[in-house]
Every structure is written in C-alpha cells, then in structure tokens.
Protein 1
Amino acid sequence: MIKISLSRLEKEPVVLTGEEPPEFLEVEPTEQFYVSAPIRYELNAAMVTGGALVEGFASTAVSGICGRCLYPVEDEKVRTADLTLFFDEIDGIEELDISEDIRSEVLLALPMNLLCDENCAGLCPVCGADLNEEECDCVIEPPEEKDSEENPWGALDQLNLK
Ligand SMILES: [Zn+2]
Ligand SMILES: [Zn+2]
C-alpha cells in the first residue's frame, strides 16, 4: 500500500520513496512475461489549492521471452512517465491511498510485447532460423496476394462489401 498521511501533509510537503513487491501489480506471471523487480517509487506530495498534488515516477523491470525470436529477456527496465497526480475531495480523509493510481501508471508503462531488442529480426516462419544470427533462403509469400487470386470473392472484398 502506498499511503500519504494527510495530517502530516497539511504541515509540510512529503517525500515518499519505497518499494512494493512485484505482486503489487497483480500481473499473472508466465514464462513469457513476468515482473522481475520490485516496484520502486519516488514521489513528492504537497497540499495545493483544492487538494493534494503528487509528482514523481515509479519503475520496475520485466523478464520473459522475446516475442519474436524466443530468446530470454532479463530485467528490462520499465519506468513510468513523469507523473502528476491531483487528488481533490480529500476533506475528512486521514490517509490518501494512491496504490491504485501508481499501479495503473506502472501497468500503462509495461511493454505490450517483450523484445530482446527493438530491431530483433525474429525467427524465419518457414525454417525457424534465427534471423538475428543467420540469413536463410526461404521465400516468404505474402499471404494476402495469394488470397485474392484464388478466392473469387477477392475483388468484392476489396470493395468492402462484406
Ligand atoms: Zn528477439
Ligand atoms: Zn528460413
């Protein structure tokens, strides 16, 4: 839980640093993709007109398998954007729980696809060669063209009548 005591915040700005275990994100770990480092946060909180302002960032790391070439990927760093979170309607609240806000920001920052490298060439779909390591002579036919030749309705599809 990431909480800020509002009575303390009333008196002075608060620096909030710490970490939560990977489970904090509630991401089901798989062999392909799992959160492999604590979620660390460095936040500054202050009272401002109309509410509380929290700024800073959070970071973690993910591991798993490259989605293109199946090589292991270890501890790829993940960092949120610089966050500016504003909380109004805090009257009568003792503690501001910002766990959900930080969780969703870190989830947003997680890569959709884990890659060993942005430019990973992946595996050849025909022979399985690792195209980062070697070139192969396979001819990969673009499936779309083939479809329109063999399918009598191909021309209709192109007119978007389906
Ligand atoms: Zn790769
Ligand atoms: Zn090949």
Protein 2
Amino acid sequence: MYRIGQEEIDAITRVIKSRDLFKINGGAKECMHFEEELKEKLGVKYALLMTSGSAALTSALIGMGVGPGDEVIVPAYTYIATAIAVTSTGAVPVIAEADESLTLDPDDFEKKISSHTKAVIPVHIQGFPCDMDRIRAIAKKHGVFVLEDACQSDGGSYKGKRLGTIGDAGAFSFNFFKVITSGEGGALVTDDRTIYERGLIYHDSSAIAYFGNQLDGISEAQFCGTEFRVSEFTGAIMREQLKKLDPILADLRRNKRYLMDKLGDVYGFIKSNDIDGDCGTTLPFFFDTEKEALAFKAKADEAGIGGTRPIDTGKHVYSNWTPIMEKRGAFNPKFDPFKFEENQGLQTDYSADMCKKTLDLLSRAVYVGVNPDLDEAGLDAMAAKLR
Ligand SMILES: Cc1ncc(COP(=O)(O)O)c(C=O)c1O
C-alpha cells in the first residue's frame, strides 16, 4: 500500500450513506463506474472487477477454454497463485526459466511448448515488464493464448502500452501489497468478447442470472462457475486508488531512476525489458556471485535499509510451491488435475532443481524497496548508505 487516506474514507462514507452495498442493483454503482474508468485508463474493451488477482487469472483461463488435457506455461519465478490458477481450471502448469530480466525467458518458453500447450502466463514480477514482443511472437507462431499476470505491476507499461493489455487478457491484483489496493481485489481485462463473456459468467455464476440485467447481450450459455463478486466498498475504494495510480507510478519511477543514476557507477542492476514502463517499485541490484549478493544484503540490513534476495521470497520461487511440486492439485483426488487421465504424460515431472538458471539468477539479486514519497534529501541519504 502506498497512498490511502481521506479520499477513500469519503468514498466508503458515500457507500454507507447510499445504503446500497450490493454491486449489481446498487444506486451508486461504484463497481460499474470503476470498470468503466479502468477500461478508459487502459484502453481496453472489457474489464471485470472481482475479489482477487487469483480470481482474475482463473476467470481469464476459463475464458480461454483452458481445462483438462491442457498445459499452461508459467515462469519459475512468480507467486504460487499463478500456478494455482492453472490447476483451478483442471489444466497443469509447465514451469519455464526466467531470464536476466527475472521475467519469463522467451527461449525456454518456446522450448517448453508442446502439442498440449494452450496458454502462457508471462508475469510482470515486481513491476518488471516481460519481453512481450518476443513472447507474443512465439505464442502467435504456436497458436498459444497469452494471459499477462500483471498482479504485481498495476499501471506499468511495455513500449508505451499498459501491461495487461498486450496479450489476449490481463489480470491485476489489488491486494494490500500492490501498487493500488482495496485490501483485497483484482480485475480481468481483455479485448476478446468470448474471454469476457465466459469470465463474466464464471466469476459471478450464482447471481448472474438472478440479479440485474447482467446476461443481456451475452451469447455464451450460462454454466456453473464460482463466486468472485465484490461489494460496493471495493468499487468505491478502487475508484479513488485508480486516480492515484499514475501519480504513484510517476513518483516511484522518478525515485528509482534517481537512485540508479546515483549508484550506476558502483553497482549493476537486473536487465530491464523497458525501464520507462517498469513500475519503479523495486531497485534490483544484481551481482556476479551469490557471495557478493549476500554480503551486500548484510550491509544493507546493517545500514537500516533492508534488502531482500528474491531467492528468499518463499512461495515466489517454484521450488517452494509445495502443493504443485508434490502434485496435490485438489483436496478430493477426483478433482485433482494431476490425477486426471487427460493430464497423464503432460510435462509435470517437477523437481526442485529443474530451473537451475532461475535459481542462480535469483540468488545473485537483492531488492531494495523504492519509496515514492522520499524527497531528494532522503534519496541522497539512501544513496550514500548504499554506496
Ligand atoms: C504475481 C502474482 N500473481 C497472482 C497473485 C494473486 O493475487 P491475489 O493475492 O490478489 O489473489 C499475486 C499476489 O500476490 C502475485 O504476486
């Protein structure tokens, strides 16, 4: 969370005073307005606000028709939620290496494509944009859907286009740790009418036909999905947060750039696929050896700055995705994609050292968080300590 205050308090007050807390028939229609405002900001045709980034990823995959018998390629460095979204559909995740940008390695993505590959999920981790030109070209060549996991990169961009709007669909998270937040929340965006219609039905499946006119103009037949609907509180807070998105990003980017300029003669940084579109949340130092990374982290901790090695971020590293590694895809074995007949023989031979390149890169990087509200004096003091 970066900035939250009186505007959000006023928005919540507005919802309570309206006494319309329900998204669909509500007089205030905060969620509906948010979806319209998000579409306009991102330049997409469809947007669905829902409970989480996981919900948005899963709904998008369902919209792409992903299911049993399908492989979905995910990077070895992403939060476990990306892989779990795949198993939620009955498909299985295939794990591919990250490259020097710490995002999906396009070469390994292409190597992992098989006749079963239905989709790929490039993840703009820590606000670092993926190499979307190459990923899209490879996906197009092989007829694979691209779902951008923009959960850690709300508002970021790649070559001038907003992250989440470059592939066939994009998923955002608004949980507490994201660039903009309502505590929990997420959104699916797409220009694809079919993905939108299926995502709409799937994410609000019990209420869709009952309340309002949600099914007007929808040609997909209603099917059973789940319930990822949010209340008007989420919509109201997110409308205020959306207004703050670009100012937050501008300040993060300015401060990150300032620190990189001040430190560039001493340190190397993770390669960026588009430093201008990078969200600026993280200053990613990169070292030749793990020993140097550990020494730097120890010094940064000592100086009160604090550093995090991505290798130490638990469920962001594939080798720590216990239920995936141990192939427990559901509580009930009959619902477990790893046990489905259709999924036998797919690329699920997981092991802790299967993506050695990713593990090596992650062990040599150290993140220092960027504060958008730090002024020049504060940045100078930080840069002096980091030197
Ligand atoms: C890369 C990534 N994907 C997906 C998610 C899931 O988002 P949520 O927690 O909103 O379900 C997260 C959340 O931290 C994430 O970091």
